[in-house]
Specification:
By secondary structure, this protein is of the alpha+beta class. About 35% of the residues lie in helices and about 25% in strands.
Length: about 575
Amino acid sequence: MDKRLSIALLLTAIIVAVTPILFPTPRRATSPTVSAPAQKTAPPVVESNQPAAGQTTPSAAIPPAVIPPAVIPSADAVTAAPPGTVPATTASEITTVTTATSTYQFTNVGAAPVSVSFRDYKSLTPGGGPVNLKAPGQPLLQYALVTNGTTIPLSSVPFQLASSGNAAGDQVLTYRAAVSGVDVVISYDIVPGKYVVRIGGKVEGATGQTYLLVNLPSGLPATEADTLSDLRSLSYSFKPSNDHARGVPFEKLDPGERVLEAGPLTWAAVRNKYFVIGLINPVGSTFKEMTLVGGPRTSKVATTASATLVKSIEDGKFAFDFYVGPQQSTQLLALGRDFDHVNPYGWSFLQPVVNPIAALCLKLLLWVHDTLKVSYGWVLIIFGVFIRIALWPLNQSAMRSSLKMQEIQPRLAEVQKKYKDKPERQREEMMKVYKEAGASPFTALSGCLPMLIPMPVLFALFFVFQNTIEFRGVPFLWLTDISIKDPIYILPVLMGLSMYLLSWIGLRNAPPNPQAKMMMYMFPVMMTFVLANMASGLNLYYTAQNIAALPQQWLLARERLRARKAG
């Protein structure tokens, strides 16, 4: 048993090393953010609470936010703008734009988006209603300019709004303001039928190299029934231009800790378990850097942090795309530039292994769902059976090799005991035993391999279920949501029983092996406890895979019985 465990660990290490080579993360050709033709959707509906002449809007001012300082490339010391440049408080005017997928709210104070809610996604928290992404006490984005060594915050500047539709049917909101002798224009081109807003702007009157600072939200509201799990998923993600995407969970940032992520960066985002807010640069443009700061802790879970992006303003202009929506694979893939890796699968040290396998598994699951038009519960059952059928020939060969090793094990033990003081003679006699049995010292490796091949898939599916919104709220049989645990633990128990039955059949007509018999009881119990609180869909997949393997185990047990009678 000790040898087999050592062999299993060795093979696991080989799989970890070889998987990134055999299944490299695909590199996609860069493309414009919304390259597909605009769908024919109803034009956005715009509502504004802008007061009429002579009237005053009740104060709904957003408190001025402090933009954390960032390291500005090629800039000297930065000083604050002169006092009195920006009014301390200003009444806000909220403009609402409704599309087929989302409802956006913008404020003229700081010319910023305030919140975005989604028509097709419901909050699973006790409050219910549509999922609404907004940052408590602040807009979703905050801007500042750095020009001539001076930082000019825009978060409390009152902008004037002018809105108009363009030829493509998009709704464009354009905000203008003059501050500290600089004219600033920020526009939002809202793409109908998608979760994308194209942000563009102009800066006139600035001297020297000018930079735009953009603050991402410092947190996102919980949208899931398991609030704690949702909050623990809070993370900033970013994509270096010449490297893979990375994530920094809020919990990894100590209060007050500052982390500088050097650019160039293709995109940056903040996300919770299922939704994401991201800023994506056009092809050929990047963010210079990003500064992360850990927020204060009011509990064991880190719920706040801050992230400031630095973008160079070239020829007085800047542009990037603003994605606010679900982490849905088709939506993220359509954006290009590896934005579908905004939530890298696996822990940091496992990402090179898990990411390619998880991406492949997800594509297969979605393909089966779209092709057969069945629920994701049945998709997981089909997928589990398919994996076992695909591995059938390998399992057959490996199990026969294992049977052969069990048969010659007593003879090998006898040789080891007889020639324990003569190592060279011992090796010669052992090789004779292997040759007579038609085996080799590597036969044990082939016996362990089938046990390890499904493990990367199981690991990958674990991470897929953690953050794949396609499974969110999907019911199956008695389950109300296959992305969360089975509330009455039927599936984990069935999974454990099917694993025990598989082991029991596998040991029938086999030579007595106390260690294998002990594992027959311990392993199913251990796996039941490990998977009990994981996604019920993961238990469903594993149960289907175990049941699909029963016929093969039964046939091999009969084969062993015939071999014993013939012997």
